[in-house]
Specification:
alpha/beta, five-stranded mixed beta sheet, globular
Amino acid sequence: MAKLIKIPSAFTPVTFIINKDDYIEFNGKLWEFKIDNQAYYPRTMQDLTKYYPLVIKYVKEKLQVEDKEIAISLPAEDYIRFASEEQTEIKALQEKVKKETGTEIKVFPQGVSALIKIIKEKGLDKDKNTLVIDGGFNTVNTIVVDENMKIIWIKTYHNEIGIRNLLDKYFYPLLSEIQPTPRNLQTIKRIFLKGKMDVGLEEIDITPEKNQALSNFIPMLFEKVIKDISLENITFDQIAIVGGLSYYVPQEFVKTNKKIFIPRENGEFYTVMGMYEKSGITSVDFGFGDIKICLKDKDQES
């Protein structure tokens, strides 16, 4: 039985120390995982590889994971690029984590890992070409995987078709027509997911505005992705939408006669659950927004 955990991808160097054991030691500093004005946030692939040992140390020390081996993820595009370079980058990361934490790591590509979990649940068919859209707040990783689970097309979109784009470009202007609204994306996100908005002493339903935003955003998303896929003469038979974006995209808004899978819950955990399904070991999906962890429930092990 696996346990799912999510923490923000935000870590702060500690300057005022009360108890050293409360923090994680890394690169000559003590760190704690929290969001504040001094926090470091990963922005690039180089940041992920730099701070992966810190994340593994957190998992081992704070979550009391004693595994000698842990599975980790990399964005599919970077995984493919590293693999094409005779895996020298992957080996360097493995050696770095081993040196810093004493832990061996297995590396998995994100989109394929999510599809492993989906097929295990019989959400999609194994012997088909599958378009996997793994969407986050800023970044959307898209791949087409063939019947042999081989990636045949891949593209990463930055600040074009992610959750931020939906909220800021398509949803926020509609809210502003109801009443002046601060352009605070966390507030806008909360209103969107709740489907209601405070106006004076009243709480009003904003389902029509939400639906209008989705009706404009979702066709744009698929038009862009399909146009890029068609340039490579690639086709797909079925679709999966995972990651945080899956919480925002209702299946009925995707106009297609192809088989489609959008998780009803835990959509952002599908990569890490697929890694765990494949490897059987504690798995860590370190992303730009959050760190998702899938580990064995000790109560279930005993």
